[in-house]
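About this split. The held-out portion is used to measure sequence recovery: a designer receives only the structure tokens and must propose an amino acid at every position. Recovery is the fraction of positions where the proposal matches the reference. Here is one held-out target exactly as it appears in the evaluation file.
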């Protein structure tokens, strides 16, 4: 195919950070690498009845927001790293795009308009990523090892020598790690290294398909001593993760605003960006505005990231979460932070919520909801069903305020539609959260109020 288009004026960016334009026939053209306001040509790679997709090939009018990418592996070329999508757009403009995505999704998918758009939550744009999953490939033909993210639109591992979105200390490990894997006898049976950083520890989880011989273990120990990392070994699924050597500092992060310290295991869910996480927890709690006598439910509570700060303010907090391991971690963390007497944790599949299950969780004044990408449909639907037909849960009352933290604006919008259009809530505030600068991921937070709050 590879035909070049006419000059096209780019109107907007889509969720994959592709420029969106219309050609002379009125067809939508998605253009990798193009920015809103630019006049560009594209090489077309895919053509369908009502849309085409291609890659930027020439620019006649450049956006004032276009910047030089900060990482040498970013680009449109073959072999470019697929980890970032927006490095060519000024970070402030990235945030504006994400804020717009949240607004547009709420309106188009949920028919909801937030009464106030809050200032987006922003943090450092480089070195922010404390979690990452690097693929490892031993390429026998070249006698080389690659460690990194996948190339753009490909299953190959990018030839990543540095990475600007992970902390410098981690980026500096990429080449030494190649040398380590190359020296190991099991080098072709080691598919992945997962990074999980705490405030003091760089934990690396090595997935190994065969038991590791003593020589390989000795190499790992030598690497740990030289580079100050902590090795964890993963022979099977995430539950099989074990420290290579006990002792040493504990993997943990702090939430200083609330005097809380959260130990975790490297395969537990923790937020990718600790700077934004601390700001997000602070913002969410200010928005929720819990009063001392109140009961709160933290849905999808993970290891207690919001539950424990909430417990410093509320009378009582119930945390509900699907993973037994995380519920166990929440309990341990509540106890370690002296908050066990104010918290309860339950493991449950929240995609299977019904009005009677919801009623059994009791009345709470406020809810914090932080679901995975799939959203909290069953929960929002159960609230809407009870509001529409109170006989489904006699005596139960919906919370007056809900703060919903989302990693997928489409499912947030769908659930917001239920809360606002069927359950009598108003969406009083919303904002984007720039948890993942340079990527197209959009994190956001929205507030729903049922009664006028004092
Ligand atoms: C975005 S994380 C939020 C975790 C926590 N609030 C935090 O800030 O660390 C979503 C959580 O939902 C949990 N989860 C995923 N599917 C679930 C389900 N069907 N039922 C209950 N919890 C689920 C995950 O284990 C994860 O802990
Ligand atoms: S993920 Fe890292 S290596 Fe890849 S483009 Fe982004 S900064 Fe560069």
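Reference sequence for scoring:
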């Amino acid at each position: 195919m590879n035909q070049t288009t006419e000059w096209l004026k780019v109107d907007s960016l889509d969720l994959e950070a592709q420029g969106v334009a219309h050609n002379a026939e009125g067809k939508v053209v998605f253009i990798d690498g193009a920015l809103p306001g630019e006049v560009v040509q594209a090489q077309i790679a895919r053509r369908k009845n009502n849309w085409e997709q291609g890659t930027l090939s020439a620019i006649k009018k450049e956006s004032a927001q276009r910047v030089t990418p900060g990482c040498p592996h970013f680009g449109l070329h073959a072999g470019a790293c697929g980890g970032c999508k927006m490095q060519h757009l000024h970070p402030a403009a990235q945030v504006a795009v994400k804020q717009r995505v949240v607004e547009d999704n709420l309106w188009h998918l949920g028919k909801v308009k937030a009464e106030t758009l809050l200032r987006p939550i922003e943090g450092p744009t480089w070195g922010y990523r404390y979690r990452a999953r690097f693929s490892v490939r031993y390429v026998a033909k070249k006698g080389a090892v690659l460690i990194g993210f996948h190339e753009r639109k490909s299953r190959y591992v990018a030839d990543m020598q540095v990475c600007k979105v992970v902390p410098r200390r981690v980026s500096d490990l990429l080449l030494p790690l190649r040398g380590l894997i190359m020296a190991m006898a099991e080098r072709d049976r080691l598919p992945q290294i997962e990074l999980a950083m705490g405030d003091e520890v760089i934990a690396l989880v090595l997935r190994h398909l065969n038991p590791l011989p003593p020589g390989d273990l000795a190499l790992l120990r030598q690497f740990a001593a030289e580079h100050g990392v902590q090795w964890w070994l993963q022979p099977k699924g995430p539950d099989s993760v074990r420290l290579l050597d006990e002792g040493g500092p504990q993997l943990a992060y702090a939430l200083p605003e609330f005097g809380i310290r959260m130990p975790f295991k490297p395969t537990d869910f923790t937020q990718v960006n600790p700077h934004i996480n601390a700001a997000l927890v602070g913002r969410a709690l200010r928005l929720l505005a819990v009063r001392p006598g109140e009961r709160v439910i933290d849905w999808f509570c993970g290891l207690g990231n919001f539950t424990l700060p909430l417990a410093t303010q509320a009378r009582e907090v119930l945390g509900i979460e699907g993973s037994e391991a995380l519920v166990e971690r929440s309990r341990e963390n509540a106890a370690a932070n002296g908050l066990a007497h104010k918290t309860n944790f339950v493991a449950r599949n929240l995609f299977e919520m019904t009005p009677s299950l919801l009623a059994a969780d009791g009345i709470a004044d406020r809810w914090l909801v932080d679901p995975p990408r799939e959203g909290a449909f069953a929960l929002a639907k159960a609230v809407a069903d009870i509001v529409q037909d109170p006989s489904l849960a006699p005596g139960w009352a919906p919370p007056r305020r809900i703060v919903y933290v989302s990693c997928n604006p489409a499912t947030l919008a769908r659930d917001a539609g239920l809360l606002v259009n069927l359950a009598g809530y108003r969406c009083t505030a919303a904002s984007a959260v720039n948890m993942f600068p340079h990527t197209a991921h959009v994190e956001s937070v929205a507030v729903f109020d049922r009664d006028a709050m004092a």
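Annotator remark: The longest strand covers residues 51-61.
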